[in-house]
Amino acid sequence: MRNIFRYFRFEEVLALSVFLLIMILSILGHKPLFENIQQSVLSYSYMYFLFLFVTIYSVVIIVNKKNHKDTKSWLKLIDILRDWLPVFVVIVVYESLKHLHLDDIVMYLGISQKDSLMLSIDNSLFGKTPSLWMESLISYPFTKINELAYDSYYFYLPILGIILYLKGKYKEFRVLSLTFILIAYSGYILYLLIPVAGPQFQNHVIYSTDLYIFGRNSVQQTIDLLRFDMDCFPSLHTAQPLAILILSYRYDRKIFYLFFFPVILTIFSTMYLRYHYGVDVIAGIILAIIAVKITPKIFKFFDSKYTSNDDIEIELSATHEIYNQKKLPIKR
Description:
The chain has 332 residues and is mostly helical. The protein has 16 helices and no strands. Helix 13 (236-251) packs across helix 15 (278-303).
């Protein structure tokens, strides 16, 4: 176990650990583990893709060792896949929360829903929950603007990530993706420990205006279909865009200025659209600051123990050179 980080990246071990934790809790909850797994298109596809990826990686290494062929291009391709795959796994794990019965796991652990607590904290901090203060702003154009801002969350990481990648800033990209991943998994664990549905489900109690009297767009409907019901504390729509904004300030100032107002509006939209309480957003801000602070240190610590594909290539090349220079005894 102590040498596991020599062969696997920290984010890969983290992804597997979180996924295994959810599955173990699902088993303890006496629920069929993969009851609806085929309905979870992302989870089902990922399992096949992961098997294919591991198979290809193993074949490349084995063939290289046996035939002493140069597999530099293959190793580079595998590096690209390994850079981006953990980000995709974050989405897979989120969608799996529903299909691995996390709702039932919460009940099994005896943890009650915390919406009344969040509402009480909001009342203490703001007088009332922020989405109530925003009722006077409701209009069709402004709601559509906020929906667009909320949906733009899905583009911040790909845009900055691709730009860093094209510029050859691979370590910066790894820090960016690891920050995104750490925030996501921290959020998933907190979803389990502090289940909160969100103020949108309190309409009949506290709201006097129907926000969606104008209808919901197709993206919002898709989000509602895929989302896990208790995914509000902390607000990852706050934490992840804010962390990306901070890192863009470090790595690419032009992207920072491009992202600044959209990210602020994304955070605002989480409350305007009634997805989050004010305390969810505060928790998201704190989580973002902590993640941005500690991730470079985590990356530096674990990456120093990891044998990259470049190192593998160097080791294999050295092995080949020794093999080729080796003098076999001459039979007489």
